[in-house]
Amino acid sequence: MLFEGLGFGLSAGEAVALTGPNGSGKTSLLRAIAGLVRPAAGRVRFAGPAGDLEPETARSSGLHLVGHLDGLKTSRTAWEELSFQARWTGGSDASARQALETMQIARLADLEVRMLSAGQRRRLALARLVASPRPLWLLDEPLAPLDSTQRARFGELMSAHLKTGGLVLAAVHDPLPIPARAVELQP
Amino acid sequence: MSAWVLLRRELALAWGRGGGPLLACAFYAGMTTLLPLASGPSPARLAVVAAGSAWAALALSSLLPLERLFERDFEDGALDLLVLGALPLELVCAVKCFAQWLATGAPLAILAPVVSSALGAPLSLAPLTFVCALIGGLGFAFTGGLGASLALGSRRGGLLVAVIVLPLFAPPVIFGGGAVAALAGGLGWTSGLMFLAAYSLAAVALAPFAMAAACRNALS
Amino acid sequence: MITALANPQRFLAFSRWAAPLFGAAAAMLLAAGLWLAFAAPPDYQQGDTVRILFVHVPAAELSLFAYVCLAGASFFGLVFRHALADAAARAAAPLGAGFTALALITGSFWGKPMWGAWWVWDPRLTSELILLLFYLGYMALQAAIEDEAKADRACAILALAGAVNVPIVHFSVTWWNSLHQGESVFTSKGPLIAGVYLWPWGLMTFGYIFLFASLWLVRTRAEIWRRRARSLALKAAG
């Protein structure tokens, strides 16, 4: 068992930073919210404007999960990967192109993923957040390979997302570049 | 719409670097070369087992690409994304297996009558061999996908998938081989073909549910 | 009764007296069955070799019975997420494999004088062989996945897929055999229908059932204890 007795809520426009030592269950909590892991007890509730949402619907169209791993196929080009991820999550080629610009990796579009650095791959993985708008962002150590300028830039993107009523839940070791409530997981 | 996007991606990945179908076909051809090497090139002896051997070798060759069907998405985290899309996971698994059939099963099916004739089977068997290989290949792809999804996360990979999947491959191998053998012996071959088709359709209908359950289990 | 046994404590209490009792019953039934098997008159067609059938046929039946138990336990484990059911499924697999192997070996011994070969691809033996392959695959999958909970679920899914597959395999093998009409098909159960053979066959079958039940209870108990020990060790490790 990783943790018990955990309860908190997240509302539109709010950001929460999950903190805690390694192995405290931050990743598992994110995956439980995304529905990939089933908790032994407890519930995840998605409340919409007209009442509670079906978890299935909320998960398949209302959230993004960007985990430790980038989820990118090394043999494909950056553009091919982002195009697929965008269209898979409800975006389009046009929005994917826009996302490349926003994440400042447009010049890498035709390079194979294997040729990108860790920071570039991370920005590519995060690009789908921008390419397909979904309210809840579940982020697992999103900033780890990014340098300070890129972190600040991503902070701006997170702020913009929150302003439009989005929600951000990020598991981090370092503080987020935006104001966020902290929830600590004790092992 | 999403299904089409996924299908195109799966096909692109299958045909991409390393040439998936070429590899499977090369393996198939290589394996059937071993038969005359092992049992002597006497045409009379080979001809008797030609069609059957070609069919059995086809089943084994279909096992090759299975290991990577789910494993590569599982390893790099892409499976998480596939689960969180608009398409139900069952359909995702079905599309993957379908792409597997198109990318590997169909080329193998085209090669099957060639291999069978090369081993000495009469040319009259070629059309039925092709049809059985095509339809049976669909069954192999879906039941193989079931084995691949069950073995996710274990580190035994290909051999484990093969051991799990062999009992599931037995009926289509029996039906397809039986149909071709019946034709060779002048007996009724339609029943074998029908049972083979029934098996493949049942696999297409049922396996995705088990595959999705297995994927969810592996991700949890 | 199954729901009553679903509680692990009650199951452990039950199996404590039930396992030795079933074992004793098995011993008596098997002893009686074997004695009658040797005392029975030789078959007019097969002679003394018919006696091997008294070991072979019930073993084959039990291999399928064990499979049904495995599939049933897997179903409960999968649908109700019941750890005891998972333990029972795990415990049943080697027993099923053992009965299948016994059926195959004794079938081979029976076949040698009958067909002159140590192995023939008759429907029953071929189905048994594929069933053995299934058991081996099940045990291989169980051993290959490190996380026990995941291994349990994966094996349960495999067991249920196999449950759908078993009748299909049996049908396909029978169909295949019927294609080759020129060869004689010995339904290896045929001679047992004669009245004088029913008693030894029945006793052996029930003896095997009690043997399976006893061993299954013992193995499930061992499985439960093993899991408890493991979770205690995990807790101690922090």
What does this structure look like?
The complex is a heterotrimer of chains A (187), B (220) and C (238). Chain A has helices at 26-34, 55-61, 78-88, 93-102, 118-131, 148-163; strands spanning 15-19, 46-48, 51-53, 63-66, 136-140, 167-171, 181-184. Chain A has 187 residues and is an alpha/beta fold. The relative contact order of chain A is 0.23. Chain B has one domain (2-219). The model of chain B has no long low-confidence stretch (mean pLDDT 89). Chain C is mostly helical and 238 residues long. In chain C, helix 2 packs antiparallel against helix 7, helix 3 crosses helix 6 (148-179) and helix 4 (83-115) runs antiparallel to helix 7. Chain C starts with a helix and ends with a helix. Chains in contact: A-B, B-C. The interface between B and C is medium-sized, with 34 and 31 residues.
Biggest interface reads: B-C, 34 and 31 residues
What's the overall geometry of chain A? globular
The percentage helix of chain C is over 70%
Q: Which stretches of chain C of 5+ consecutive residues score pLDDT under 50?
A: 182-186
Gap between N and C termini of chain C, in Å?
38 Å
Biggest sheet overview of chain A: 5 strands, parallel
In brief, what are we looking at here?
The complex is a heterotrimer of chains A (187), B (220) and C (238). Chain A is an alpha/beta fold and 187 residues long.
Secondary-structure topology with pairs:
The complex is a heterotrimer of chains A (187), B (220) and C (238).
Chain A lengths: L14 E5 L6 H9 L11 E3 L2 E3 L1 H7 L1 E4 L11 H11 L4 H10 L15 H14 L4 E5 L7 H16 L3 E5 L9 E4 L3
Parallel strand pairs in A: 1-6, 1-7, 4-5, 5-6
Antiparallel strand pairs in A: 2-3
Helix pairs in contact in A: 3-4, 3-5, 4-5
Chain B lengths: L1 H14 L4 H20 L3 H21 L3 H10 L1 H6 L5 H30 L7 H25 L7 H27 L5 H30 L1
Chain C lengths: L1 H4 L2 H32 L10 H31 L2 H33 L7 H22 L3 H32 L15 H43 L1
Helix pairs in contact in C: 2-7, 3-4, 3-6, 3-7, 4-5, 4-6, 4-7, 5-6
